[in-house]
Amino acid sequence: MNSLRIRRSGLAAIAGLALVAAAPAAPAMAHTVAQPASPPDVLAAAAADRAAASGLDKLAKGPAEAFRRVSLTPGSAGLFYASYERTYAGLRVVGGDAVVVADGTGAVKETVAAPTATINTGTRAGITADRASTVAAKQLSKVDSASRPELVVRAGETPRLAYEVVLNGQRDGAPSVLHVFVDARTADVVETWDEVVHGTGNGNHNGNVTIDTGRQGANFVLNDPTRPGVSCGNQAGTNFTGPDDVWGNGSGTNLETACVDAYYAEQQEWNMLRTWLGRNGIDGAGRGFQSRVGLNDTNAFWNGQFGSFGHNSANNAQATSIDVVAHEFGHAIFQFTPGGSGGGGNEKGGLNESTGDIFGALTEAFAANPNDPADFLVGEEVNLVGQGPIRNMFNPSALGDPNCFSAQIPNTEVHAAAGPQNHWFYLLAQGSNANPASPTCNGSTVTGIGIQKAGQIFYNGLLRKTTAWTHAAARRATVAAAASMFSAAECNATKAAWSAISVPAQAGEAACGQQPPGNDFSISVNPTSATVQPGQSATVTVSTQITGGNAQTVNLSASGLPAGATASFNPATIQSGGSSTLTVSTSASTPTGTSTITITGDGADTDHTAQLRLVVGSDTPPNCTDPAWSPTTSYVPGDHVTHNSHRWESTWYSTGAEPGAPTSWNVWRDLGAC
Q1: Is the pLDDT of residue 81 over 80?
Q2: Other C-beta atoms within 10 Å of 273: how many?
Q3: pLDDT tens for residues 247-262?
Q4: Options 415, 423, 643, 646, the catalytic residue
Q5: Of 174-183, 194-203, 581-590, which gets the smallest average pLDDT?
Q6: Across 92-105, average pLDDT
């Protein structure tokens, strides 16, 4: 019997006592006690919150929109990544998320936002929540449970008011946790995405390994005492227990052995994340997840809550090798980084599958287990259907997957769509002339930088992810990460690897070799909103902060003012690091309503923008007592109507233009939600 002997972790501490000789009392003296400096994460979070409130650069938002921070994750090079969720009139906006990159001194380094058109959907649904549930339920062949429909806005090129319903059940016999978005006016299904992310792998054993186990009464249990949430059990979720601390028999059909493999692999992935990437646990907040073995399927999957592992088609090996287990929990990392797993279609799905493969390769390399040597093949030892590995990272086309990015990728099945980014990671880590050699799509030669550095660049790029995640966005993010973390050599290698898989340079892409960065600054407004009556004025402070290099001259201007309003700065030209007073003056004819004023800082070396929300009239919701809008009525400028729980003012002659529709934005002025 090949027993797997396990060492339980233990902690021992020796208390040290500092002995200080008593000294004569000294006369009391007046003195100033220095206040402790704020921790870097506090400074970074405060700077990010100010940027989100000010609508800095890419964080632009409409009058009824706001950002709320949902996480702050430390990265490399002293950077922190603050993730934000957008709201509209209090509703959650799906796909309107953003990330602010700030350092520990409180300087904002970058803003990233999922692209969306101006949101003007209103908040009144035209169908009931019950009808939305009925429509959503038709998307699964079997529904075990469904969430209560939540009214949200689905952002994008055409934002839509929708109900989100989460279904637990089965689709074509496979487990599913399906998010369904139902248009709240037409009852059409806008979009679906599944939390259950499937992958396949092998049941190779890792030999005699050391893992950390816990105690449950008189028994031992596969429940990690040092890594919260990490455990292993059967398909019912019951963790394996035993009278001794010896687990498994080395057999490919023994489920306790399968649990040892899965448990060991997740612990190795946890250690890799901590040691190489600085991440705290699988979810980034100090927790991992349960592994469940014994799935009666030639498959493995992550369902948003735990990893489930089956067997190969010969049923003589379990799908619990290092790369397969790390792949499934790589999906968890993708889910628990900014932008989550939802939205984006097959292109984002392919990037998600590739993320699992990359974390599998990283964990194999970190574990350095001779029974499962590091490589860039996925599931190579399971022989799932008698054909060896299921994916090849150094040459995806060897298994029928694309090596290169193309316009077909968004319509490619997600596991195949993993090919281009898998290929990019191999080229960045190992290079094109490594062993094995890797063909490039442009005939170039790429020099690798090593798997640990490649992993750090990939992970810090992932921390810039938004809902709208594409290969182009991943290139921008990883190049920005490489530029902030390493020298020009690593940064240029990152670019070269992307170009080698046919993802070209992107607009606004970071330059390599600018360490320290060039002259740069950020801009903010305080307060971020002001309320005046027609004919009155309001003043706010526009502040700038040097975020790189030296001070530069910044010329200030404002746009987006309502009719009859003017803006003046005192002074209008400042040096970055300085501030100015902005006065917005309205006239008696300035219409009531809410406007978003964009303040531009035109620097000698770079430009930045911030936003001021200006309310003319009352900041309380308008009393919608006007007649309801009718598509057959002819309206003239100045007419007021109510529609979709908003009050609207006609700005042009109109018949049939529905308030809030994209084609009517130049016809109707939104005065706010009722």
Answers
A1: yes
A2: 25
A3: 888 888 999 999 999 9
A4: 415
A5: 194-203
A6: 95
pTM: 0.81
Does domain 129-194 correspond to CATH entry 3.40.50.1100?
no
- CA dihedral of residues 226, 230, 231, 232 (deg, nearest 10): -140
Residue 174: CB atoms within 10 A of its CB come to 13
Burial of 560 (C-beta count, 10 Å sphere; 0-12/13-18/19+): middle
Query: Is the CA virtual torsion 504, 474, 177, 308 positive or negative?
Result: positive
Q: Is the peptide bond before 516 cis (omega within 30 degrees of 0)?
A: yes
Active site annotation includes 415:
yes
Mean of the pLDDT values across residues 471-477? 97
Question: What single-letter DSSP state applies at residue 442?
Answer: S
ω into 527 cis (within 30 of 0): yes
Pick the CATH number of 520-616 from 1.10.443.10, 3.90.180.10, 2.60.40.10, 3.40.50.720: 2.60.40.10
**Interval 483-489 mean pLDDT:** 94
* Residue carrying structure tokens 């529904």: 143
Average pLDDT over residues 536-546: 95
Show me where the domains of the chain are located.
44-113, 129-194, 393-515, 520-616, 621-674
Fold classified for 621-674: Seminal Fluid Protein  PDC-109 (Domain B) (2.10.10)
d(CA 441, CA 293): 40
Distance CA 474, CA 458 (A): 9
Sign of CA dihedral 370, 371, 374, 375: positive
CATH of domain 44-113: 3.10.450.490
Predicted confidence (pLDDT) per residue in 415-426, tens digit: 999 999 999 999
H/E/C letters for each residue in 244-311?
A: CCEECCCCCCCHHHHHHHHHHHHHHHHHHHHHHHCCCCCCCCCCCCEEEECCCCCCEEECCCCEEECE
Please indicate whether the domains covering 129-194 and 621-674 agree at the CATH topology level.
Answer: no
3.30.2130.10, 1.25.40.10, 1.10.390.10, 3.40.50.880: CATH of 393-515: 1.10.390.10
195, 328, 353, 380: which one is catalytic?
328
- The answer to whether the CB of 342 falls within 8 A of the CB of 97 is no
